Amino acid sequence: MSIHSYIYENAQVTSAACAIKILSLLEERLSAAPLASFAISGGSTPKLLFGELAKSGFDWSRVHLFWVDERGVPPNDPQSNYKLAKEHLIDPAGFPATNVHRIQAELEAQTAARLYAEDIAKFFGLGAGVFPQFDIIHRGMGPDAHTASLFPGSALIDNHVGLAGAIYVEEFEQWRITLLPGVLEAARNTIMLVAGEDKAEPLRTVLHEPYDPKKYPVQIGTHDGNNVLWYLDQAAARLLN
Ligand code: 6PG
Hints:
Strand content: 15-25%
Distance between the termini: 14 Å
Number of strands: 9
Structural class: alpha/beta
Radius of gyration: 16 Å
Shape: globular
Oligomer: single chain
Helix content: 25-40%
Bound molecules: 6-phosphogluconic acid
């Protein structure tokens, strides 16, 4: 399995390089289509990436923004992935509000997931059983090899029909709403941004171990290496040879 990985000295430089790649993929897409679709993740690592995207001066008027996952909290909650993106990307970049497809995570989680799936199906004009092909899905990886809000052992990993699902995560005592495996696998481009010492061991494991998505959810949509780019800082990549 060949992966396309790019390693930089620290999270800031890695995020800057990742932003340049995302913008060039969006430009490429917008040269061939009226609109582009971009799904983003949350957590701590994306903050730097969002800052780089926001200061790029890019014309976002034809880019529609979606989320890979969200925490079951209101949009003004400090843990909200929407809040993170609003403060570091949407507002500073002047992202058109009509292009922002927020997960209404303040609602009951299953309802939020259903409404989000309906919004995605409407935007992509999907028929039953068809997965959207996001132009770019930006993802991260947790120290436990989770991605999106697909955690090891999660029943949602077996859901190969839905677009979005909700699950209660004991570890965080929190509901999560997340894109499901079929959507992650259908992405036109997957950009993995992974930084930090605590990611080194799990990264080596998930890249070298056979495909076992229940154990290593991050392998979903990345294991075959097609259109998957890994942006890594040296700390995260230190065990890769
Ligand atoms: C979330 C994310 C999640 C994230 C990983 C890595 O809502 O937390 O979408 O999947 O990508 O937890 O997070 P860090 O970048 O903070 O390590």
